[in-house]
């Protein structure tokens, strides 16, 4: 591994941009599909957890309070670039993205950088500044805004925090770019998780560059660098091989691992859905455990 790769790897672990559960103490992580997993990706934390939380809170407030796109963009630029200029760690992340952009996308192959509401902006705005190109804000209200005008069919590089299943690309960002009459050559992101989103983008004919793929190779590198231990790596390898077999081995024995009484509301609803709908068909062979979990769920709902 290169020094830059090692630095990013350590930063991802140190900031919990990828968090790994402790299967001896719990709690397990819950994904949007209402299924559990041993790790969770919060890419924005790589710039610093406290800074990321502060910026996202302020971004949300700006979007809620300011309806005019030009005014929004001015406030967002001031907020994010101000934080970027004050944070060496933030600058380190953007420097890695800049090197990747210059290496993977030929000079002159894109005229603007686009970023989508909200987390993309943490990376797209300062990267556009560092590369000396215009930034296009893509808002969830289906509009785009750029302070400087652009011509039809100019080419955009979309910058993102994370590619998972790429739903936001096809549901929001690509249609907004088309509506704005901007071509788009591809995307650059910090993390990708799984192959579904990457394959969708590849099939769409767009080049995709990711600084880090949260797959088994990531955990192998983490083990080699001393950032995780062998047991953790082996558990995650088991999860990648079969999430159902992983659940049988690591989850179906201790209700305390789920900490149902103290989960945030969203995670609790995902837990409740999992044990109610049994998507992995575990209930038949773990009847007593499922019954115990349903008691925990009822206790939380009746509290």
Would you mind describing this structure in some detail?
With 303 residues, the chain is an alpha/beta fold. The protein has 2 domains: 3-41 and 218-302, no CATH class; 61-212, 3-Layer(aba) Sandwich (Rossmann fold), CATH 3.40.50.2020. Helix content is 51%, strand content 17%. The protein has a 6-stranded mixed sheet, sandwiched between helices. A hairpin with a 5-residue loop joins strand 6 (134-138) and strand 7. Helix 3 packs across helix 5. The longest helix is centred in the N-terminal third of the chain and has 18 residues, at 69-86. It is globular, with a radius of gyration of 21 Å. The model has no long low-confidence stretch (mean pLDDT 96).
CATH topology of the largest domain: Rossmann fold
Largest beta sheet, briefly? 6 strands, mixed
Number of domains: 2
Order of strands in the sheet with most strands: 7-6-5-8-9-10
- The count of β-strands is 10
**Coarse structural class:** alpha/beta
Strand content: 15-25%
Q: Could you give the distance between the termini? A: 51 Å
Can you tell me the CATH class of the largest domain? Answer: Alpha Beta
**Residue share in helix:** 40-55%
What's the helix count? 12
Please, what is the average pLDDT?
A: 96
What is the CATH architecture term of the largest domain?
Answer: 3-Layer(aba) Sandwich
């Amino acid at each position: 591994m290169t020094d830059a790769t090692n630095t990013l790897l350590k930063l991802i672990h140190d900031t919990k941009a990828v968090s790994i559960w402790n299967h001896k103490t719990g709690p397990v992580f819950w994904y949007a599909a209402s299924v559990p997993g041993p790790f969770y990706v919060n890419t924005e934390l790589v710039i610093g957890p406290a800074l990321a939380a502060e910026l996202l809170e302020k971004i949300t407030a700006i979007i809620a309070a300011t309806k005019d796109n030009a005014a929004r963009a001015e406030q967002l630029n001031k907020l994010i670039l101000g934080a970027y200029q004050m944070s060496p760690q933030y600058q380190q992340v953007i420097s890695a993205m800049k090197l990747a952009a210059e290496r993977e996308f030929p000079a002159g192959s894109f005229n603007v950088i686009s970023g989508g509401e909200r987390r993309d902006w943490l990376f797209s705005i300062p990267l556009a500044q560092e590369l000396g190109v215009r930034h296009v804000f893509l808002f969830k209200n289906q509009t785009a805004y750029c302070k400087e005008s652009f011509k039809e069919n100019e080419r955009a590089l979309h910058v993102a925090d994370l590619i998972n299943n790429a739903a936001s690309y096809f549901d929001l960002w690509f249609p907004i770019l088309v509506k704005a009459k901007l071509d788009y050559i591809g995307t650059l992101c910090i993390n990708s998780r799984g192959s579904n989103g990457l394959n969708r983008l590849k099939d769409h004919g767009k080049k995709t560059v990711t600084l880090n793929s949260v797959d088994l190779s990531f955990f192998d590198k983490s083990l080699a660098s001393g950032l995780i231990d062998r047991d953790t790596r082996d558990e995650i390898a088991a999860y990648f091989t079969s999430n159902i077999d992983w659940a049988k081995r690591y989850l179906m024995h201790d209700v305390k691992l789920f900490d149902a009484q103290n989960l945030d509301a969203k995670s609790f609803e995902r837990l409740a859905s999992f044990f109610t709908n049994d998507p992995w068909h575990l209930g038949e062979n773990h009847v007593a455990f499922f019954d115990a979990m349903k008691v925990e769920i009822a206790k939380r709902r009746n509290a």
